[in-house]
């Protein structure tokens, strides 16, 4: 079975690690602005712990006297294709690191997501190329996100036995209709104009204008000039409708179910070629991941959780996923051995015990599992 519809190569690199960890981010200052360039082009700018540790102090420092933070990806192919999960698996499976240490990457990554989400200095993310998983976490919580005709967005975590983290439980339920639930469960992609139409991006510009836009942004003196610059260079309203538009009614009908079983049943009842394709996808990815993901989005929506609460919920879940084994098997099958045949612990949705899902949402045992997630810099530190 192919991963994410068509290109297995892109997806397998999306979570992979090829370049050395050092110098993964470049910083430059022009006038009142700061530019962050993610710089592991061979690994499609996949985010690793060294990069998180480069970025975090800069974002803390730039809360004062900076008009805008501009983030982009080097190499022309990707903004950031995700978190470096191969490295996370290696730490646990090969290096036998304790769970607290393995979870440290997620802890630090989520702190950075939180910092970007709550930044008093606005961020403009230039989403040219592949923007998946951890790359979405670096951009979607910022104030401005600029898509281009080359943007390729996805949250493909269920395929590797994880869930759309990095604040996915916060932004996905806010997308139109049931689009967020659909994207979270299937890992389906949005391209170019779709990313803008769905509201993942706030602006859209043709890729050939990106450098001019970037140059213009670096000339601003204060953050109230950002929107004027974006509006000047960005296409106000792409005329093309989103490629998912013909399926939006089916998405809203089929993905309205209270359980993953109901969603699969609705897709089977729909019976179209489009629906059958997604039934195949849902049957291939981790049943445990699907159930945990849907529950997470439901919790977020039901309680209207803010970004801090969403990241706390996700951190509790990720600790359980790191002790559970599903994620390491998914990474092994898709990204390490690449046999594309993960052996999930429960092969059907019906077989996944409720307790296994419930556990993901319970407070951490601080002695065994490490500290609860609290935002660094908050009064609880």
Name the features:
4-stranded mixed sheet; 381 residues; 18 helices; 6-stranded mixed sheet; alpha/beta; disordered N terminus; globular
Descriptive notes:
This protein has helices at 8-14, 49-61, 85-94, 99-117, 134-139, 168-171, 179-186, 193-197, 210-217, 226-233, 248-254, 260-270, 273-284, 287-302, 307-324, 326-336, 354-359, 366-369; strands at 25-30, 33-38, 68-73, 78-80, 123-127, 130-132, 144-147, 152-154, 190-191, 203-204. The chain is built from 18 helices and 10 strands. Helix 9 (210-217) runs antiparallel to helix 10 and helix 12 runs antiparallel to helix 13 (273-284). The strands form 2 sheets. A 6-stranded mixed beta sheet has the order 1-2-3-5-7-10, with helices on both faces. It is of the alpha/beta class and 381 residues long. The chain is globular, with a radius of gyration of 20 Å.
